[in-house]
Amino acid sequence: MSLTFAQVYGKIREKFPDAVEAVVECPGDPYIVLKRDSLLAVCGWLKTDPEMQFDLLSCVSGTDDKTNFWTVYHLTSIPKIQRAVLKVKLDRAEPSVPSLVPLYKAADWHERETYDMYGIKFDDHPDLRRILLPEDWVGFPLRKDYEFPDEYQGIPLK
User: Fold this and answer.
1) Strand, coil or helix: 56
2) pLDDT tens digits, 97-146
3) Which of 77, 103, 133, 149 is deepest in the core (most CB within 10 A)?
4) How many CB atoms sit inside 10 A of residue 155's CB?
5) Is the Cβ–Cβ distance between 30 and 9 less than 8 Å?
6) What does pTM read for this prediction?
7) What share of the chain is helix, strand, coil (3-state, %, to 5)?
8) Where are the beta strands (DSSP E) in 46-120?
9) Cα–Cα nearest to 103, from 14, 39, 35
10) What are phi and psi of 12, to 5 degrees?
11) Contact 135/129 with Cβ under 8 angstroms?
12) Residue 63, exposed/middle/buried by CB under 10 A (0-12, 13-18, 19+)?
């Protein structure tokens, strides 16, 4: 039997009471906000616990709300037919979060894309470098304060 979002988040709270900053009920996909330093432990448990079995990391992304950066993780349990959305709020001055590559190989390119677009660093990522933009691109285009250049290597961009 599948667990609802609320049931999954309740079980996370039971197992990791100090890890949870908030549970946000909203239309679509409700989500849980985790403390940065708890991400690996919570995801490791979600993946290996027999009741959870979140075996698929379908998406890692970033967001910028002008005050903070966020990482967003969409997890699915194929055997249990249940989903979870996790968010981690990051410091704008030094945005970094542990990499989930040791738990989910799919995190590799997702984290690289998030780094490329937002400049969020994924600690202990095996190959954190740009994946969409050239290596010499300056800045991170999806940041709210990004100023798009007029040209790149002599090519007009505007």
Assistant:
1) strand
2) 999 999 999 999 999 999 999 999 999 999 999 999 999 999 999 999 99
3) 77
4) 6
5) yes
6) 0.95
7) 25, 30, 50
8) 56-64, 69-77, 82-90, 96-98
9) 39
10) -60, -45
11) yes
12) middle
